[in-house]
């Protein structure tokens, strides 16, 4: 969980992370250069506009001459057009960088996720990954485009204006710029403060959002426990908190602007005073005076932007660190060893002989789940794994699927260590049906084809028929094209299970693995599912993590697992006559009056 | 526009604050218009040596017997700072007041909505589209908040600014005023039209992003399936499609926006240029002074940028109204009648259904339940068995007071259920739902749901619900976080925690609406045994479709098509022809052959 609570010191810029981003940005070198050039061009135009007023005053008004007014109008028009083009191009260029960079990094991250092993997903909450994939990546995209835009604009604007002012009258320039340090320090302070306050507000806001979503999703529960008062109280304290914090944040924002314009006005007043007497003495032209007053007012904007953008860069750094942490996660399961038959891998058939040799495994160091586990399964044999929750039976199938690898020992398929085959090959031979069947949004057909991309409609229908799903599917409004909804939400649990069987059948796997659901479905569906299981197992090596003894009955060999070792092993009849743990399990799980049962 | 009315009603209690903020804002706008005038007089009369035309200034000069302003530049410089500071001072209060008004309004509305949703009837929630409700409560609320906190204030400011500045400018020079506002309608209309048109672009881009999130979400939820099927490649393809779609759609939006900013900037700068050139022309023809020209260049800048901004705010205005409508739709739903003035009797738990019939109000002809007669005596266990859709859950909902019978009576200790206060009733008559909801928080918080139980009581409830062992297996035990962002619990674990919180303190009537369905057979039996031992006093109603669950009850009633078709004890029902025996035989052949070792087919 360390990576979740991991906090970064935001008051410092971490060079390493920005170097990584810059490295990834080299792909967009051209666009980045275009954006920066355009921003310099924008700020140049922005600072030339006041110059036009100066020219108008000094060339036309003071000498009272209209000579060259036509040229002036033309120049002004050109300037406006130039700025319009600048703006069009820079937004397009920065937009391109933003969306492409975010796209690229999201793609890399998604591919990374597909390669990571189960242990990563065990340790990392889904919400954490979602936040990295959505808001964090968006933030990085924004900062490397619009953040850079504001940064370059702010800097060049300040340089250009200061340059112009120094050029026209350095004394007056120094007077005008005297308030800049104060403004800069104050802006920095307030922007940081404001960002922090708003982050607090956003945090409470998301708390309110989740309270709302809980209040709504859990409304029936709340009512049945008569908890309306309690939850309303909790909600009210959150909104109270929200109100207080929001007003606080708003107060900081409302304080900043008045202070800034007041300090700025001191600059303007000083310029007016000094420049005015300069005009009287003839050392400053009227046009230059007006130019200075405008520039002094204009100077504040880039200062504020810079203060804001720097704070945002610091914030984005935290996002970047989390995203790069995801990108740099080490894969623990993968095709690392020298693979055999890699060239004609597709032709390598699997008979289905499986052997666990002295397999040890633990999820956490020091907490062994499997201990010296040995098992040999003949092709076509059906193994049922029974035992209590946490006994290690699910771990056995997880290892067989190579979702995890043994800590020591080896697992062989047809006599070959499975690490010497590719993961792709292994998974193409395995059909895995999960306890809670997860369907993907899309049609039923698409979901069945998930098991065999590119399969024909005929194959889809055959697979559905094998597991008795065809009947209910054709009764649906749009048959095989009916949408299942997100997570299969539009289907019943039983229907979802049947479809998950169908998508396994269509693969025609050599090994069939079933992690059985504990939840009960109504009797009719139960019959269907049982039939489907029997169909799917035909002619295949099968591993079943069983919760229903009816399923156990269709297996050849039963393994009672306890604390990571095989406690009892044999057929149902053998184990029943042994009158051991299996026997008492069957006893306890079924009717207390066995005589009734016949 | 009829949605404006509820919007105003939300502001109740804050109208005065808004009004004061508006007045202060008016003053600050007035002050902001003074500064260009100060500059004008400074340039014309102090630096330059023209005759003072401003009547106020001229009046003051006469009063103080000042002939020329040429030595008083310092005074104007000071005035400039003072007026700016005054304006700043006012702006601060405007910001503070409008924040407290809008935040207060939103807080009240949020509280009202939340409380209202909680108090909507069970039937509403059963049929509600949860996602849509959450959407309304959160993002529509957010739209409204943005409108109240930012857009409303900004609109007021711009309106005042236009009004005041046109007046001040007109006093300086009517002809210049016309040139200064000539392009502003175009700027406004362009922004307005553009943002109305681009709305769909925002939606398209948001949708593409939502689709992308869904793909990631589904991939993460189904990562086991993806890996087991070696479908990583296929998933990457699906993702790639959505990822590039989002990239292209958001770029399309950005490039449309690029045109907008470019064109509207072009218009704004043209407007400023027009003032400058026309001002030079008028100055040369002696109609206006240099100071007036300078003042106008300030005024025009103060006008054009906010007016451009207005275009998109007004375009957004429609969104706020739609949000009001969507929130109002919830608020207008009728709340459940809690019978607040009803009785609060001590409930012992004798339950009696007398000829109860029920049908939903939207389909009164279809009888969900009809002619239901039974009773549960204090401490008895009654099992209700029936197929899916037989009406057995409705029975539970009636007893918890979520619905009223259309005919007949339900009596608790002889008192008609309808006359008992609902909250009171539900604290004594506790219903455990089939798919219970756990609140975000620790397991302790979820079990100690009323927040007043001792640690020992919590452990005991957990033990009774056979969840104690499971909880202790978690790394953080009872402090494990559950709910949306917490650990993933199995359906069975959730059901057992729900049972634990239901029995945390003594209830008189317990109703289990198929709430043991996700447990394996062994655990289920254990839970039932413990429950029975610990809650001897409580009358219990168990609703199920499993014979194994029903058979241990004191009494069993079998429901089919909304009517009681059989009742009695297991031993009687198992041997008499009827639905019970049918189900019994069915479930039996299924499990029964285990004992004989025959293979299931």
What would you say this structure looks like, in words?
The complex is a heterodimer of chains A (598) and B (601). Chain A has 598 residues and is of the alpha/beta class. Chain A has 21 helices and ten strands. Chain A has helices at 2-5, 15-25, 29-61, 69-115, 118-123, 126-168, 170-177, 180-217, 219-224, 228-281, 286-327, 393-400, 423-429, 444-449, 457-466, 470-475, 493-505, 523-537, 549-553, 572-578, 581-589, and strands at 354-364, 367-377, 382-386, 408-413, 416-417, 430-433, 511-515, 541-545, 557-562, 565-570. Chain A has a six-stranded mixed β-sheet, with helices on both faces. In chain A, strands 2-1-4-5 form a four-stranded antiparallel β-sheet, with helices on one face. In chain A, α3 (29-61) packs antiparallel against α11 (286-327) and α10 runs antiparallel to α11. Chain A starts with a helix and ends in a 9-residue tail after the last helix. Chain B has 601 residues and is of the alpha/beta class. Chain B is 63% helix and 10% strand. In chain B, the strands form three sheets. Chain B has a six-stranded mixed β-sheet with strand order 6-9-10-3-11-12, sandwiched between helices. In chain B, strands 2-1-4-5 form a four-stranded antiparallel β-sheet, with helices on one face. A two-stranded antiparallel ribbon of chain B has the order 7-8. In chain B, α2 (15-47) runs antiparallel to α11 (290-331), α4 (73-119) packs antiparallel against α6 (130-172) and α8 (184-221) packs antiparallel against α10. The longest helix of chain B is centred in the middle third of the chain and has 53 residues, at 232-284. Chain B is elongated and about 120 Å long. Chain B starts with a helix and ends in a 5-residue tail after the last helix. In chain B, 45% of the residues are buried. The chains are: A alpha/beta (598), B alpha/beta (601).
